[in-house]
Design goal:
mainly alpha; Lysozyme; Membrane-bound Lytic Murein Transglycosylase D, Chain A; 3 domains; two-stranded antiparallel sheet; two-stranded antiparallel ribbon; 20 helices; 8 strands; 48% helix; 6% strand; elongated; disordered N terminus; Transglycosylase SLT domain-containing protein; signal; LysM
């Protein structure tokens, strides 16, 4: 069952419960109200005169705003990711000092003059934005935090800076290591969107709690410049009698512009029509499903089994440098939400039962003692084709349980 299916069932169940509760309350309210269908007072068992038309009108139930629009409210408009994000924004109503607002306005005009840049970046964010926004919301963080990759990497999960930072969240190697992001020849956790997003949010929350009494803006400054630099600037501002908010600090130029950029982007997303920006349609639910792998599985194998292009899988799994996922190299494989994720989960854990269900073998599960030459001979294939189709870096080091694609995509 995919994430979306679970979410839909939950919402339907919750909606049914709410509706039944409201209908029962309405019925109870009706029973408690004076009746208008008969001319008998049940409690006294005596007849009473029928009310006059004016009295009848006065007695008629009056629909307040809640009851009058109850059924209309059940026809909810489908939400996209932008409407969901707007509901989670926390900084848009904050009134800033004039100098601080001028810094935000400068970036609003910068982006406003380049609307195509925003459109291009938000389109690049399409696979990731709904899921990231969801993670931010679940932690109770300002919705603006989901836009940090806009500032850091233009939402390019493979982005690398000249200083060595990498991924959507632009982690330096040392920082990534400290946060437990695995790096080796075949996998880089900084490029893994799921893993790096969790690490980034953990980092922001821990920094805010440890140093800044929960102030996320100061934690963002530390994310960019380092806690030492921000703490020094904070002490200096407080020694001058200032409150020590982000807007009070004297920081390196890049850090001084960090939060203004973020707030400017959120301001434009809050009201894109005002700034002449047309945002792309992005669904409000995650665009991918996560599969936990028990055995190694190459992207070529997954492509064959799921009928999903290998390029699509590679774009969803940029942390897999060697094009193979598994317990050692990024245990979670991301696949399109619409793909048959149950099949790939079954194949990653089962034996040949599922493979036998196909008319023509498309894959081979490596068994103990198998060699590439023996597999090629068994299926009358060229070893070089097997190497190319499966992106094998070490053809002589096959792993029992590994799936090999037997045809080109």
């Amino acid at each position: 069952m995919t994430y979306r299916t679970i979410r839909q069932r939950f919402l339907l169940s919750a909606g049914s419960t709410v509706i039944m509760g409201l209908l029962m309350a309405a019925a109870a309210n009706s029973e408690a109200s004076p009746g208008t269908l008969g001319s008998f007072n049940v409690s006294s068992n005596t007849t009473t005169p029928l009310p006059s038309p004016r009295e009848e009108q006065a007695r008629a139930p009056r629909l307040d705003a809640y009851h009058g629009h109850f059924w209309d409210s059940l026809s909810l408009e489908p939400q996209d990711v932008w409407s969901v994000m707007r509901q989670s924004f926390q900084w848009q109503e904050i009134t800033l000092p004039l100098e601080a607002q001028a810094r935000v306005d400068e970036w609003i005009e910068h982006y406003r003059a380049r609307p195509q840049n925003i459109v291009e970046i938000t389109r690049r964010a399409t696979p990731w934005l709904a899921w990231i926004s969801e993670q931010v919301s679940e932690r109770g963080l300002p919705g603006e935090i989901a836009l940090i990759p806009f500032v850091e990497s233009s939402f390019d999960p493979s982005a690398k800076s000249h200083r060595g930072a990498a991924g959507l969240w632009q982690f330096m190697p040392g920082t990534g290591d400290a946060l437990g992001l695995v790096r080796n020849q075949s996998y880089d956790g900084r490029l893994d969107v799921v893993t790096s997003t969790q690490a980034a949010l953990d980092y922001l929350e821990s920094q805010a709690a440890e140093w800044y009494q929960g102030d996320i803006m100061l934690s963002l400054a530390a994310y960019n410049a380092g806690a030492g630099t921000v703490n020094k600037a904070l002490r200096s501002a407080q020694s001058q009698g200032l409150d020590g908010s982000y807007w009070d600090l004297s920081l390196p130029s890049e850090t001084m512009q960090y939060v203004p950029k973020l707030k400017a982007i959120a301001t434009i997303i809050q009201n894109p029509e005002r700034y002449g920006v047309e945002l792309p349609d992005i669904q409000a639910t995650p665009a991918f499903a996560k599969i936990q792998l028990e055995n190694p599985l190459s992207l070529a194998e997954a492509s064959q089994l799921l009928d999903v292009s290998q390029q699509t899988l590679a774009e969803l799994n940029p942390g897999l440098l060697g094009a193979q996922a598994g317990p050692r190299n990024g245990q979670t494989l991301l696949v399109p939400e619409s793909a048959d994720s149950e099949l790939i989960a079954e194949l990653s854990q089962s034996t040949d039962a599922v493979l036998a269900s196909t008319d023509t073998p498309a894959v081979h599960r490596v068994e103990s003692g198998d060699s590439l030459s023996a597999i090629a001979a068994r299926y009358n294939l060229d070893q070089r084709d097997l190497i190319r189709w499966n992106a094998l870096d070490r053809p002589g080091a096959l792993t029992p349980g590994q799936l090999l694609a037997l045809t080109a995509r």
